[in-house]
Task: structure prediction
Amino acid sequence: MKRENSKLDIQEILSRKYSEDAVIDTYEYCMKKCDWDPSVLADGNIKDFLLGMLFQAEVDNGGISQFFFNSSGDLSQETVAALTKVDAKSARILAEALACFPNGVAPRDRQIRNDLMDRFDEETVNRLELLEEVISGHDSSKSYYDFLQEHKEDFLNF
Result:
């Protein structure tokens, strides 16, 4: 998803008509501004956008399991909350995936989370696979674009 060699101008990006590239370029612009670590940001629209995009990138790259296995899963609870504002369908799917963990909470600690996932029974693994199938056909880029347009001033002032 990174295009590190490109020069990004947020005003130009947000003035574009809908395209997946406008969403990706906004993602890259904001990630560069927070040194590729959205956890350092205060809660708000930019962090919500970035957490949602990280979830989407992980799912696109390797499924819901990859999201949990990687560091992006450290913020899974925050990601569900963010997705409810950006892409409701993805939020529902992630919430269902979180239900696979004890008490519906994926531990922030990556190693503990991975150990739990390694011990998931066949039924739970199958449930995650079904959720991955549902989300794999979901194109959320328009939802992200609409979110950017709705909160344009926040992104222009970032």
In short: The radius of gyration is 16 Å. The mean pLDDT is 94.
